[in-house]
Amino acid sequence: MDVATNAPPPLECSAVLTHHWLVRRRGGERVLEALRELLPDAPIYTLVHDPAGMRAADEAPAGLSGSTVWRSQAALIQEQVHTSFLQYIPGSKRHYPKLLPLMPLAARRMRLPAVDLVVCSDAALAKAMTPHARSRVVCYCHSPMRYVWDLSELYRATLPAPLRPLWGPLVRWLRDVDRAAAQRVHQFVANSQHVAERIRRCYGRESVVIHPPVDLPPAPASGPRGDFYLCVGHHVPYKRLDLAVDACRRLGRRLVVIGEGPDLRRLRTPANPHVQFLGWQPDAVVADHYRRARALLFPGEEDFGLVPVEAQGHGCPVVAYGVGGVCETVVHGRTGVLFGEQTVEALAAAIGQLESLHLDPDDLHAHAQQFSRANFLGAMRTLLQAAHAMDSQHPLHRA
Q1: What is the pLDDT of residues 194-221, one digit of tens each?
Q2: What gap in Å lies between CA 51 and CA 45, rounded to an integer?
Q3: On the chain, which terminus has fewer CB atoms closer than 10 Å, C or N?
Q4: In sequence order, which ranges of the chain are alpha helices (DSSP H)?
Q5: Residue 22, Cα to own-chain centre: how many angstroms?
Q6: Do 228-370 and 3-213+372-389 fall under one CATH topology?
Q7: Start-to-end CA span in the chain (Å)
Q8: Element (H, E) at 254
Q9: pTM over 0.85
Q10: Does domain 228-370 have CATH number 3.40.50.2000?
């Protein structure tokens, strides 16, 4: 099914899109692609851009080949991407997280042109770029910065010991910068009720909830499922992939792990014959594993979590930690199993519970349809059209 057949027409207004960084095609970048369908002529402003990293996901999953979903990716790696001075620091495309102290300055120095709408796709400081006074700013917030607001101690523990005393002052400063940037936003859009609450707590702002778009196959897999469990995602501490590795080791179950990230070395130690690490894989390979896996294991707390919805769209059940956005996307006992504590014991028990259920792949696929790309585009077009129609002299909410 070509998603373009259900896509609403583009908006007729001048606009720019901003995004925190473009280095790999993950959930936030998929949202940016969808926004680009509504604003096809909008240039993109980002702190750091790695065209090779963005180009790496070119291969489309079976069933979506040739659709606008995948053609739109080219827009993110071509000439309409504008970057900050961080782009010219050697190694920035690979080591951009280490440039965090410079990001507020880099964002502020990016002065955006005089347009009707500035649409931010943000999980960091895309909203801190300097808009023109005539522009209305709409921020689609994937998450307030986790490493600054909620998980600062977890990230502090990953730093070399000599740098840890500097982390507290840096976090306090970044919170002030982030909170001030949030006051320049006219309309916040949260990707889940969970994120809406975090926006309220961190920024003191209300938001509209529009779930992000998920690219779904036209039908779930019909063949027999394999004997392995699956984890998909960026390997960082808060994902808690260690729980999945340890639970499968304890139960003697096969586990396939797809993705890359700084936590990979720790997850691989000690060697485990039950666990296979595939590294980063193109979307077609990920989709094939969704179709064959016994279930997806999702032990981290996520603000929304595209991966569980993708899995359900392929008829793959989900075993997930029942906190955060997953409570809005997985139905306990119907499309998967939710467990209440982030422990190996709780996850192992949930796997056992899943193995006693008989879940219908068609039911899982039907449930995932509410998070379709068409629904996202329709809701965002309505919201952006309303923002554009507002009086341009409306007072700016600026600090």
Answers
A1: 999 999 999 999 999 999 999 889 988 8
A2: 14
A3: C
A4: 27-38, 51-55, 68-71, 92-95, 103-108, 146-149, 152-156, 164-182, 193-203, 241-251, 264-267, 283-292, 306-313, 344-355, 361-368, 373-389
A5: 12
A6: yes
A7: 46
A8: strand 254-258
A9: no
A10: yes
